[in-house]
Amino acid sequence: MGLKEVKEFFRNRSLKVKDNKRTTAAELTLRESIYPICLVTVLFFLWGFSYGLLDTLNKHFQNTLNITKARSAGLQGAYFGAYPLASLGHANWILRHYGYRATFMWGLFLYGVGAFVAIPAIKAHSFGGFCAAIAIVGSGLGSLETAANPYITVCGPPKYSEVRINLSQAFNGIGTVIAPVLGSYVFFTFDDSTALENVQWVYVAIGIFVILLALAFFLSRIPEITDADMAFQASETHANADDKPFWKQYRLFHAAAAQFCYTGAQIAIASYFINYVRDTQPWSTDASAARFLSGAQGAFAGGRFFGVFLMNFVRPRWVFLVFLAFCIVFIGPSTTQSGWTGMSFLYVVLFFESICFPTIVALGMRGLGKHTKRGSGWIIAGVSGGAVVPPLTGLAADAHGTAKAMVVPLAFFVAALTYAVAVNFVPAYRDPADAFSTTEVGLTGHHDSLDEEKGISEKIADEKLEHRDDAARKASI
What we know:
Blueprint: H1 3-12, H2 30-64, H3 69-72, H4 74-81, H5 83-97, H6 100-123, H7 127-154, H8 161-186, H9 192-219, H10 227-237, H11 250-271, H12 273-280, H13 286-311, H14 316-334, H15 339-353, H16 356-364, H17 372-381, H18 389-400, H19 402-405, H20 407-425, H21 427-438, H22 456-476
Helix pairs in contact: 2-7, 2-8, 2-13, 4-7, 5-6, 5-7, 5-17, 6-7, 6-9, 7-8, 7-17, 8-13, 8-16, 11-16, 11-17, 11-18, 11-20, 12-13, 12-15, 13-15, 14-15, 14-16, 14-20, 18-20, 20-21
Keywords: Cell membrane, Membrane, Transmembrane, Transmembrane helix
Main location: membrane
Membrane topology: Multi-pass membrane protein
C-alpha cells in the first residue's frame, strides 16, 4: 500500500463531520440501515452485560468487604453518577463537533480504561478504588448511550424508530441475563480471594474486547447523521418542534425528568433483587438468588421482544403508558408479600419495565430536529437517577427490610408516569409523536439525489446560481 492509498484510507475514515450539511442519511431505507444498526447493537449488549454484572457485584462486595446495603450502592452511585458528565459534557461535545462514530470510539476507550483500572483496585481490596474504576466505566458507557440511543432512533425510517430502539435494547436485556448467571458461578461458588481474582479476569476480558471493538468502529464506514438531516426529517414530518429555542423544548425536559425517575426505580429494583430474595426466602443462597435475578432479567429481555411485537400494531405511546402503569400495579404487592409470591411480582415488574427506557428516549427526541444531539444528552443524563434512587432504597432496606424498601422505586415510577400520561393526552406532546409515526420518509426512497458530500448551503447556492443564469438568459432575449 503506497502513501497515496494510506492517505486515502485515513481520509475516508475521518472522524470530523459538518453538522450544517445534509446527507442522504436522513432518508436511509430499512435495507441501508441494517449494517450500522447491527454494529451499534453490539454496544447495547455490552452495557447490558456491564449493568447486570454490577447488580451481582453489589451483593458480592457486601459479602467480601463486609459493607452495608446502603454503602454497596456506591457502585451504582459511581456508575450512573458519571452519566451526566458524559451526556452533558465531554461526550456531547464530541458528538456535536465530530459525530457519532468518534463518540462511539471515545466511549469504548473509556470503558476499556475503566476495566483495566478496576484490576489493581480489586487486588488491593479497595472498594473506593473499584468505585473510581466503575465511574470511568460509567463515563464510557454514558458516552456510548449518548450517541447510540439517538443513532438507532434516527438511523432508518422515522416511522419505526421506537421499534428499532426497543429491538436493539433487547440485546441489552440479553446482556443483563448473562451477567448474573456468570456471577452466580464465578463470584459466589468460590472462596472470597478466588472470587475476587475471578472478577479481575472478567475485567481483563472486557477491557481487551472493547478496545478491539473501538478499532472495528474506526475501520467501519457507517453513515453519519447530521443536525441538518434531523432538521430535514422534522420539516418533512411537519412536527415543527425544532423552530423553538433549545431551552423552550419543554417536552424534552419532561422526558429527561421521567427518565431520571424511571431509571432510578429500575436500577434500585435490580440492585437489591438478590437482597430481596435472601430476605424473603431464608432458604435461598447468594448463588441461587443471582440465578433468580438472571431469570428476572430474562423476563425483562422477553418483555422487550414482546413490546416490539406490539408496537407493530399499536402506537408505541400507548404501549409505553400501559407497561409503565403495570410496573406500578405489580410492584405494590411485592412490598408486603414474601417468598415465591413477592418474587413473582418482581418478575412481572421487570417484564413491564422492558420497553420504558428506550421508548422515553425515542418519544422524547421526536421533532427535535437540529436540537437532536443536544437533546439526547439531556435524556441520557436522566440515567443519573440510578445514582440517587438505589442509595435511598438501600437506606430504607437497612432500616425496614428490602421488601418494604420497594416503596421507594414505586414512588419514582408514579412520578415517571406523568410523562406517559402527557405524551398520550396532551396535544403538544402527542402530535409530534404521531407525526413521526405516520411519515413515509425512508420508505419511498430518497427525497432527491442530494450528494452526501454536498451540504444544504451548497445546494441553496447552486439553486440561486441557476435562477441568476435563467434571469440573465431571459434578459438577453
